[in-house]
């Protein structure tokens, strides 16, 4: 079934009647276009949902902006309807045929027919009362409450009502299927792909052109490898039908290819550095748990290309300011000073990078540190709208806490000559109502895969310390 409001859609009943979905306020605030996401089915909005939208419309937060957008969308839908709204408003026109159902608004007072003990003044309970009323008024029809609030869904189930989560915003149902950017070639790869194989050298790299059954599954800028005596580490440069072209990589595990004194410690780090140091790759996404080296590798590559190669004018670093514990309140100072407490990871990694030059001495390292700090700008996400970054190396840290809409806002700030790097761990999401499947980081990894100017690597191994590695396994 096409509808994706539930994690697993139920088997269609024999009845041709469409379903009636009652939307909780948090669904509209989470996805302002959610009224258009139910295809041939009907949508019902209780009056309490509209009341809560009105309460949330003031302010500059993402929730307030979404509330205002929903209100404008509903105004557009109602304005397009000339007859009475009691019979429902066709959504085909306002949604440009994205939805073919009807929108119903609560036009009459509904008695709070709830069990004794549930406070009738509470907004959630009034919405539940509407669902009970609709279920009794439409016994032959499936009435479903859609809510992002787990407690609301549990209460609905306790009252014998059908309730589902809203999953239309999910990029993937299962994040285990998320593109990793890395593929291990099967042991018999060369047996099946060596016929008519071509090989040649270019700029010190070996290129292969092969034909075979695995080639259509490959994506441009996907890394392939094969361990063993004749080990191969390469990147896919071109895919056309059953033909694929590979190119060998720079070996960043060797000290002679070190980046700002840093060498790759494992296979995935080597792949990541090949993307970060490639001027033809404009967008890089790095996924991995804490300690896999995402920030250190990115900063090392950024400093090399800004200070030594002069490819970019400066480094801009930003991250979502979502506190893990209790918020400590307003912070004094300029924008950069306010962002200071959030940028501990930046300072930690700069300290490591500054110690890589052992011959510089204390004075030399202090001077280098000052030079580096002058070329790194820390910016807040709040002031990104309307900006254009020209010839910058933009680093988005903790990107798993961004919504797809926020991610789009950030990446579209990139002007000519700018490289964007997104880093994060989708297992550590702190933003309410955001899940691994609907995170902005998951969204860009899935949407950018296969584009010739983008690349992605999922880092597997932690390289922080034996204590950190053991803690990651057992805690």
Automatic annotation (TrEMBL):
<dbReference type="Pfam" id="PF02562">
    <property type="entry name" value="PhoH"/>
</dbReference>
<dbReference type="InterPro" id="IPR003714">
    <property type="entry name" value="PhoH"/>
</dbReference>
<keyword id="KW-0067">ATP-binding</keyword>
<dbReference type="InterPro" id="IPR002716">
    <property type="entry name" value="PIN_dom"/>
</dbReference>
<dbReference type="Pfam" id="PF13638">
    <property type="entry name" value="PIN_4"/>
</dbReference>
<protein>
    <submittedName>
        <fullName>PhoH family protein</fullName>
    </submittedName>
</protein>
<feature type="domain" description="PIN">
    <location>
        <begin position="19"/>
        <end position="154"/>
    </location>
</feature>
<dbReference type="InterPro" id="IPR029060">
    <property type="entry name" value="PIN-like_dom_sf"/>
</dbReference>
<dbReference type="InterPro" id="IPR051451">
    <property type="entry name" value="PhoH2-like"/>
</dbReference>
<comment type="similarity">
    <text>In the N-terminal section; belongs to the PINc/VapC protein family.</text>
</comment>
<dbReference type="GO" id="GO:0005524">
    <property type="term" value="F:ATP binding"/>
</dbReference>
<keyword id="KW-0547">Nucleotide-binding</keyword>
<dbReference type="InterPro" id="IPR027417">
    <property type="entry name" value="P-loop_NTPase"/>
</dbReference>
<dbReference type="GO" id="GO:0005829">
    <property type="term" value="C:cytosol"/>
</dbReference>
<comment type="similarity">
    <text>Belongs to the PhoH family.</text>
</comment>
């Amino acid at each position: 079934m096409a509808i994706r409001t539930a994690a697993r859609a139920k088997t269609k009943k024999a009845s041709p009647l469409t379903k009636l979905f009652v939307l909780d306020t948090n669904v509209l605030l989470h996805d302002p276009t959610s009224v258009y996401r139910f295809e041939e089915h009907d949508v019902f909005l209780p009056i309490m949902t509209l009341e809560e939208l009105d309460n949330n419309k003031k302010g500059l937060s993402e929730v307030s902006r979404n509330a205002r957008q929903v209100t404008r969308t509903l105004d557009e839908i109602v304005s397009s309807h000339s007859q009475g709204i009691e019979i429902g408003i066709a959504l085909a026109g306002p949604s440009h045929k994205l939805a073919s159902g009807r929108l119903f608004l609560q036009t009459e007072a509904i008695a709070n027919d709830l069990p004794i003990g549930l406070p009738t003044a509470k907004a959630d309970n009034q919405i539940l009362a509407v669902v009970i009323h609709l279920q009794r008024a439409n016994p032959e029809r499936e009435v479903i409450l859609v809510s992002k609030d787990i407690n609301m869904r549990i209460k609905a189930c306790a009252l014998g009502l059908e309730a589902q989560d809203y999953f239309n915003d999910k990029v993937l149902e299962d994040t285990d299927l998320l593109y990793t950017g890395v593929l291990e070639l099967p042991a018999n790869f060369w047996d099946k792909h060596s016929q008519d194989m071509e090989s040649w050298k270019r700029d010190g790299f070996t290129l292969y052109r092969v034909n075979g059954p695995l080639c259509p599954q490959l994506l441009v800028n996907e890394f392939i490898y094969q361990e063993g005596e004749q080990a191969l580490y390469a990147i896919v440069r071109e895919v056309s039908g059953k033909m694929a072209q590979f190119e060998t990589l720079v070996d960043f595990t060797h000290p002679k290819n070190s980046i700002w004194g840093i060498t790759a410690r494992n296979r995935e780090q080597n792949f990541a550095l090949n993307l970060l140091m490639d001027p033809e790759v404009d967008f890089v996404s790095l996924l991995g748990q804490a300690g896999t080296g995402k920030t250190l590798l990115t900063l090392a590559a950024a400093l090399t290309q800004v200070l030594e190669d002069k490819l970019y004018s400066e480094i801009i670093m930003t991250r979502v300011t979502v506190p893990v514990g209790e918020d400590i309140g307003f912070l004094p100072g300029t924008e950069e000073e306010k962002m200071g407490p959030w940028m501990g990871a930046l300072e930690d990694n700069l300290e490591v990078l500054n110690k890589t030059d052992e011959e510089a001495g204390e004075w030399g390292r202090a001077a280098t540190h000052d030079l580096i700090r002058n070329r790194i700008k820390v910016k807040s996400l709040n002031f990104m709208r309307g900006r254009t970054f020209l010839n910058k190396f933009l680093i988005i840290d903790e990107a798993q806490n961004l919504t797809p809409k926020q991610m789009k806002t950030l990446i579209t700030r990139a002007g000519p000559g700018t490289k964007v790097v997104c880093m994060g761990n989708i297992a550590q999401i702190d933003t309410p109502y955001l899940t691994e499947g609907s995170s902005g980081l998951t969204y860009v990894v899935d949407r950018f895969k296969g584009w010739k100017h983008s690349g992605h690597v999922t880092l597997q191994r932690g390289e922080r310390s034996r204590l950190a590695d053991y803690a990651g396994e057992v805690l």
